[in-house]
Amino acid sequence: MSTKAEKTEQVGAIFRKFDTNRNGFIERSELMSVLSVLDGAFWAEAEVDTMLNAADSNKDGKIDYEEFLTWVFGDGDLQEAVFIADAKIAVPFDDALAEELTWARTKPAEVAEILRARLGQYTGKEYSPPERVGSTIVTKEGWPVVEEAIAFLMEQAKAPIGGLGVISNIGLACAAEDHVADIGTTGVAQHASSDGTSSSERGLRYGVFGSYGECLWYGGVASTARMMVLDLIVDDGVASRGHRLCVYNPVFEVVGCAYGKHKTFASMSAMEFARNWQPNEEAITARIAKGPCIPDAETIAKAKAKTGDTGWSLGTCPVCKDAILGGRVMEVEAIGGKLHADCFNCSSCAKPLKGAPFKVHAGSLFCSLCHSEKHGDQCTGCGKPIAGGMMKCKLGVFHVECLICSQCNGAIGRARFSCDGGVMTCSSCSSGRAAAPKRAAGAKPKPGPKPKPGPKAKGRAASPMRGGSMPAARNAAMGIAMDYASLE
């Protein structure tokens, strides 16, 4: 490979470090976020704008790959500064995956020791990794497959194989990105593209090779590159242990990786392995400028419509009505059982309901506030929805704070009261122990100071001779209040 070809490959890797959202362009915000972290004193806004204006030849406010390549091979102090900064830029996730794969291949004994610690995180088939505090992953085989992987690694340690480098190969990474952009959208778990293209055919878009292999990982966004590689080595639920064997296949010499969102499992990564890889520089340059190569919208739509294959079949989500094919799943009996974790939201305001009070109405989920506004009781006193505690009597349902004595204007709260004559009267006024203040006709009652709460209702009638007095006997129809919120 010529010196210019080597530099071109390095420039491609640098471009990908700056293009953090992987849309095929370097935007001003991306330049600022990457360069200011490295050296805020040097890469101030003026220098970033100077670089943007110099490289952005078509003046559309962003730098595509061809513009970046042309600018970098030009003369100038900023070009040299970019190469110097390259060594300091944080390792992108695809490079981190390549580095972890090299670690696993060259140091299998270390991998075995880490997996021994994982054994203690299993309860039957439930795996509770430390990074998922309070939640578990339901595996297909449980801890025995981890022990099997450890035994494999100890044999591998007797004759370790070579690594794959610490930088994701740009051509193979393009093939990996193509697949992530495709099935990440459809939500299936398969090596074939939505249009039937195989993994090796995707690789041939950007070069030729002697041997080719692919590993796909699916899981939560909290997983690190090392966790992903460990999962591939354990290879739970894959009878052939194809992922484990691919990672440790001695013929492979290079790997290209990609990471992105997945509709079913939240995130996924693709790793493309090759022997005797010969890149097609022209195809790679065009691909970086254009973005991921994926099937057309109609093909993607047809793929989405299919049930798909993820290795799991957990029924139908009662919220979105799609099949549950794995990923983050919750069990909510109130709505019918299992549902996608991402679907456990209020159907009105879309607020996530995990860890929050919720209600179900006509098969739909609601947070407490939205349920009270749309389907809850209305206060007889103020006419507003009741979201919290309420008091109920023969006059209707009320907010606790809306219970006001019709004679003394005092707040009744949770104390006993009378409903005689169709009006609300506190126990003191109804027993004659308090004088009823006069007020002008049509004037609204002014609430007095809130008294100390009375005893809670017990759900039975009060004794008509309580206290042994006749007034108490005459007020045997004393209202019984109930706090329904406390029963939920």
In terms of topology, how is this protein built?
Layout lengths: L2 H16 L6 E3 H11 L6 H11 L6 E3 H8 L4 H10 L6 H14 L1 H12 L2 E2 L2 E2 L9 E2 L5 H13 L13 H17 L12 H6 L2 E2 L2 E9 L5 H10 L7 H6 L6 E9 L3 E10 L2 E2 L1 H10 L6 H9 L23 E4 L4 E4 L17 E4 L2 E4 H7 L15 E4 L2 E4 L17 E2 L6 E2 H4 L39 H5 L3 E2 L9
Antiparallel strand pairs: 1-2, 3-4, 4-5, 6-10, 7-9, 8-9, 11-12, 13-14, 15-16, 17-18, 17-19
Helix pairs in contact: 1-4, 2-3, 6-11, 7-8
Short description:
The protein has helices at about 5-20, 30-40, 45-55, 65-70, 75-85, 95-105, 110-120, 145-155, 170-185, 200-205, 225-235, 240-245, 280-290, 295-305, 370-375, 425-430, 470-475; strands at about 25, 60-65, 120-125, 125, 135-140, 205-210, 210-220, 255-260, 265-275, 280, 330, 335-340, 360, 365, 390-395, 395-400, 415-420, 425, 480. The chain is an alpha+beta fold and about 500 residues long. The relative contact order is 0.08.
Describe this structure as you would to a colleague.
With 488 residues, the protein is of the alpha+beta class. It has 4 domains: 3-86, Orthogonal Bundle (Recoverin, domain 1), CATH 1.10.238.10; 93-305, CAP (Pathogenesis-related Protein p14a, 3-Layer(aba) Sandwich); 312-342, no CATH class; 391-487, no CATH class. It is 35% helix and 15% strand. It is built from 17 helices and 19 strands. It has helices at residues 3-18, 28-38, 45-55, 65-72, 77-86, 93-106, 108-119, 144-156, 170-186, 199-204, 225-234, 242-247, 281-290, 297-305, 368-374, 427-430, 470-474, and strands spanning 25-27, 62-64, 122-123, 126-127, 137-138, 207-208, 211-219, 254-262, 266-275, 278-279, 329-332, 337-340, 358-361, 364-367, 390-393, 396-399, 417-418, 425-426, 478-479. Strands 3-4-5 form a 3-stranded antiparallel sheet, with no helix packed on it. Strands 7-9-8 form a 3-stranded antiparallel sheet, sandwiched between helices. Strands 18-17-19 form a 3-stranded antiparallel sheet. A hairpin with a 2-residue loop joins β3 (122-123) and β4. The protein starts with a helix and ends in a 9-residue tail after the last strand. The relative contact order is 0.08. The model is unreliable at 434-488 (pLDDT under 50).
